[in-house]
Design brief:
Blueprint: E1 4-9, H1 16-28, E2 33-36, H2 41-48, H3 54-62, E3 65-68, H4 76-85, E4 90-96, E5 112-118, E6 128-130, E7 140-141, E8 146-147, E9 155-157, H5 163-180, E10 185-190, H6 199-210, E11 217-222, H7 223-232, E12 239-242, H8 244-258, E13 265-269, E14 274-278, H9 295-308, H10 311-327, H11 341-351
Parallel strand pairs: 1-2, 1-3, 3-14, 5-12, 10-11, 10-12
Antiparallel strand pairs: 4-5, 4-13, 6-9, 7-8, 13-14
Helix pairs in contact: 1-11, 5-6, 7-8, 9-10
Length: 355
């Protein structure tokens, strides 16, 4: 297989404590992958006058994928480039229970679904400001029965749902449902009862896309109804697709069903690029304590290997993770165990036959 290149951003606070050992784990698999470390943050600013210089951007562009550590600000410009610059429009967040996870659910055994979050539009475009900016539009609220200019001082955020953005991420969800080969169902959710023009448009596009996939079941729920269903009957879900803000919130909630964000991997996919990161933050409160859970980061790396075509290695890593938890070996602190971060990696090396 042709050699691949992966750009690595270790991240901030406690993130490097799991990112560096995960890359070391991948190197032990002796795959044809070269890892490069683009300069970013204060180090890049001191050396190049920019927190994300052109040389670092070029390394990302030349790489086949990026492995991204959680950021608290140092790597933000790189993250924005990976998202909007590389047009990675589909954020895929698996929610799969593995025996040994500390789930709060009474019967979590068959939880296995994926949240597909639109990654570029909605309120995340950053179109915000003071209400005075909109005064010239003479906007009138049918619900509040008042004009915007009469509401006094305040601020706004614009929600954007486009045909192109919605169609491609919904189609991505249907293709994923086919690829998974499980329940073969797509569930679409948004607040289409109140936001008929925006969220309703997302739903309308969903029905149009569904016509191209007669082999995939399709259902829609209002987002608050969906949340109730996700909690009470998560095993009824397969692939769920939603606009950006709901996807951000619901995917974190989905992680709570299986045991928390320390178990939640993610990948962000575009037409010709993808980057992979754990769903949790930088965990500054436990930095340097050697107790951050590596599971989400390692599973994100597994998703990356699959994307790069190393499916056997990806499956091996996932099987190793499953075996550790099932055996109750080296369970991380956030899952009720006492294992340190380095001990988890040592045990995983053993499970994978790398020691």
């Amino acid at each position: 297989m042709t050699r691949k290149t992966v750009a690595v951003f270790p991240g901030d606070d406690a993130s490097p404590e799991v990112m560096h050992p995960t890359v070391e784990l991948l190197e032990k698999l002796h795959l044809p992958i070269d890892f490069v470390y683009p300069m970013v943050g204060n180090e890049a600013l001191a050396a190049h006058g920019s927190r994300f210089p052109e040389t670092s951007k070029a390394q990302v562009d030349e790489a086949d994928a990026t492995f991204f550590g959680s950021t608290s600000g140092q790597s933000t410009e790189a993250l924005f480039y990976l998202r909007w610059g590389k047009q990675t429009y589909a954020n895929v967040r698996p929610c799969q229970f593995r025996p040994g996870y500390r789930s709060p659910m009474a019967n979590p055994e068959n939880i296995d679904f994926v949240v597909v979050r639109e990654n570029l539009e909605d309120l995340y475009l950053g179109l915000e400001g003071d209400l005075t900016d909109l005064a010239g539009l003479n906007l009138y609220s049918k619900h509040a029965k008042t004009s915007l200019k009469d509401m006094g001082a305040g601020r706004y955020a614009i929600k954007v749902i486009t045909e192109v953005g919605s169609e491609r991420v919904i189609r991505f969800a249907f293709e994923l449902a086919r690829e998974r080969g499980g329940m073969r169902k797509v569930t679409l959710t948004s607040k289409y009862n109140m936001l008929a023009k925006a969220d309703g448009y997302f739903r309308e596009i969903g029905f149009e896309v569904a016509k191209d996939y007669p082999d995939i079941a399709f259902e829609t729920f209002i987002v608050d109804d969906f949340l109730c269903r996700m909690i009470t009957n998560p095993c009824a879900l397969d692939v769920v697709v939603m606009p950006n803000l709901y996807g951000d919130i619901m995917s974190d909630g989905a992680a709570g069903l299986i045991g928390g964000l320390g178990l939640a991997p993610s990948g962000c996919y575009g037409a010709d690029y993808a980057y992979f990161e754990s769903a949790h933050g930088t965990a500054p409160d436990i930095q340097g304590q050697n107790i951050i859970n590596p599971t989400a980061t390692v599973l994100s790396a597994s998703m990356m290997l699959s994307y790069l075509g190393f499916h056997d290695a990806a499956n091996t890593i996932e099987a190793g993770i499953s075996s550790l938890y099932a055996a109750g070996q080296c369970i991380p602190v956030d899952q009720g165990g006492i294992a340190k971060t380095n001990e988890f990696f040592q045990a995983l090396d053993g499970a994978l036959g790398l020691t």
